[in-house]
Amino acid sequence: MADHHPAEESLIEKITEKFHGHDSSSSSDSDEERSEPSDIKAKIYRLFGREQPVHKVLGGGKPADLFLWRDKKVSAAILGGVTAIWVIFELVGYHLLTLVCHSLIVSLAVLFLWSYTTTCMHKSPPHIPEVSIPEDLTVNIVLSLRYEINRGLAVLREIALGRDLKKFLAIIAGLWVLSVLGSCCNFLTLFYIVFIALHTVPVLYEKYEDKVDSFVEKAEAEIKKQYVVFDAKVLSKIPRGPLKAKKF
């Protein structure tokens, strides 16, 4: 094979460098184009500063599916059952112990008569399955409850240490609202209201997420603007005494 001339080799190297430079520039352009949408997404306002979808915020899994109506039959059945319990106890005036006793009386009477009649007719008695609470389920429920209680106690401790004024004011306002609701209705009605809110607010927010976030962003900007005006006209004019030097 014939040897290549040095001039031809230098020309080929220049051409390949131009091609590689074009490829690298195009790849960098594409990388910049890919990074732009992510930057735009990062700048989008989300309620409470969340970065995850609503399903992840609710914990994911079956509880989130239940609140977001992923399985409409199951969600409707549970909501209907809770509504029936609230109607029985609040509107009808039934008591819990009375309801439990009457339900057991009816169930045991029906099963006993069924078994007795089949035995008298020389037939095999009905198969009544054994009901028992699994140990794993009980342990998981207790551990989850323990984790949530410990997390709540840790939050209360951080607030009591005076490290976060906004969180302190939010907790105080929330407890005050709960105290007002508790004076207006009993615990069962309050639990029912919270249950209805969990079954309606998340699914409606997920459906109208962009509109709600846009409205809240405008409202927050307006509140900050009014606070600046209030601070300039009222808070800044409040006389304050001179700070005394601390003695060490």
From TrEMBL:
This is Reticulon-like protein. The chain crosses the membrane at residues 95-114, 168-198. GO terms for biological process: response to bacterium. The keyword Ion transport does not apply. The keyword Protein biosynthesis does not apply. It comes from the Eukaryota. It comes from Iris pallida. Keywords: Endoplasmic reticulum, Membrane, Transmembrane, Transmembrane helix. It is a multi-pass membrane protein. GO terms for cellular component: endoplasmic reticulum membrane. Residues 1-37 are annotated as: Disordered. Residues 63-248 form the Reticulon domain.
